[in-house]
Specification:
Blueprint: E1 5-6, E2 15-20, E3 32-38, E4 43-47, E5 51-65, E6 68-74, E7 84-87, E8 92-97, E9 101-108, E10 117-119, E11 126-130, E12 141-147, E13 157-164, E14 169-170, E15 175-176, E16 181-187, E17 193-198, E18 201-206, E19 210-213, E20 221-223, E21 229-236, E22 247-248, H1 259-263
Antiparallel strand pairs: 1-19, 2-3, 3-9, 4-8, 5-6, 5-7, 5-8, 5-9, 7-10, 11-12, 12-13, 13-21, 14-20, 15-22, 16-19, 16-21, 17-18, 17-20
Length: 269
C-alpha cells in the first residue's frame, strides 16, 4: 500500500514543490498539494484559478489582501496554533516573508466566491484534546480543525492538523469517509517515524512524507515511541457529498465511549 505514499526524504527546495496534482494518473484525490518555501524578504503573489489555502508551518510573514495586512509568526507547528490564508479562485493576495518561511499549500477546483480569510486561534473551529481519558490515553492527541463546512460553507477544502505524542495512536478508532484526503507528516526528530493504516494494510511514514487517502479506506496512525508526529490533513468535499464527520469502523467504535475504560486491559508488567 506504499503506492499511496509519496516520499520527499531530503525535504523541499526553495520555491514551490508540487506533491500531488489535480488529475494525477494514479490515485487522483482532486487536490493539488505542495510545499512553498520562501526566503527572508521574498514576496509571493497569489493569483490562482483554484480555491487555495496557505498554511504557515514555520516562519514569520505578512499576509496582504484587499487592502488589509497581517503579520503572523509561528516557531513550532507542534507547540503553536496555526495561521492559514484562505483564498477563493481568481482572487489575489500576497505573502511577504519576514524570515525564511515554509507553507503547506492546498488547492481544489471551486468556482464559488468567498472573502479572503486569515484563520488563527481566534476564528479556527477548534483545538480539541481528542481521546483524553479513554484507553489509558493511548489515543490521546490534539486535533486542530482550521476550517470546514461549518465556518467556510463555500469552500471545497477542509483543513486541519493533528499532533500525536510519542508512542500514541491518532485518527483512532479506525475511520473512513467517501471524500478524498491527504496527510502530510513531520516529526520532532528528523529520523522520526510512525505507521499509517490503509484499509487492512500498514506502511511506515517518515519526515516529509505525504499519504493519499482514497476509496473509503480506514486510516488510523501511530507514532513510534520517542517521536512526536505532526500531520496536516486536507479533505476535498464531493459535489454530491460534502464532508461533515467520519464513519468509525463498527467493530472498534466502542473505544470512543466510556465503556472503553471499563473493558480496556490496564496491564501489569
Amino acid at each position: 500500500m506504499s503506492e499511496y505514499r509519496i516520499r520527499n526524504p531530503q525535504g523541499f527546495p526553495h520555491g514551490y514543490t508540487a506533491i500531488t496534482q489535480i488529475g494525477d494518473k494514479v490515485h487522483d484525490t482532486g487536490i493539488e498539494f505542495g510545499i512553498l518555501k520562501l526566503k527572508n524578504g521574498e514576496e509571493y503573489n497569489i493569483q490562482c484559478p483554484l480555491e487555495s489555502a496557505w498554511l504557515l508551518i514555520n516562519g514569520r510573514c505578512k499576509f496582504a489582501h484587499d487592502g488589509h495586512e497581517r503579520i503572523v509568526e509561528r516557531a513550532s507547528c507542534f507547540e503553536e496554533d496555526p495561521f492559514a490564508l484562505h483564498v477563493a479562485a481568481n482572487n489575489s493576495a500576497t505573502i511577504i516573508a519576514l524570515t525564511d518561511c515554509e507553507f503547506a499549500v492546498s488547492k481544489a477546483i471551486n468556482s464559488k466566491p468567498f472573502p479572503t480569510r486569515i484563520y488563527d486561534s481566534q476564528n479556527m473551529l477548534e483545538s480539541e484534546h481528542r481521546g483524553k481519558g479513554l484507553l489509558n490515553d493511548t489515543a490521546y492527541r490534539i486535533v486542530r480543525t482550521i476550517f470546514d463546512i461549518r465556518n467556510s460553507p463555500e469552500a471545497k477544502l477542509v483543513l486541519g492538523e493533528v499532533i500525536t505524542a510519542p508512542g500514541r495512536w491518532s485518527s483512532y478508532p479506525p475511520h473512513h469517509h467517501a471524500q478524498p484526503e491527504i496527510y502530510h507528516y513531520r516529526f520532532t526528530e528528523p529520523q522520526g517515524y510512525g505507521h499509517a493504516e490503509c484499509g487492512d494494510d500498514v506502511f511506515k511514514v517518515r519526515q516529509f512524507d505525504t499519504y493519499k487517502i482514497l476509496d473509503a479506506n480506514d486510516h488510523a496512525q501511530a507514532a513510534a515511541p520517542g517521536y512526536g508526529m505532526y500531520y496536516i490533513w486536507v479533505i476535498r468535499h464531493l459535489d454530491d457529498k460534502p464532508y461533515d464527520y467520519p464513519e468509525f469502523t463498527e467493530e472498534h467504535s466502542w473505544t470512543k465511549s466510556e465503556l472503553a475504560n471499563q473493558r480496556v486491559w490496564k496491564g501489569s508488567f
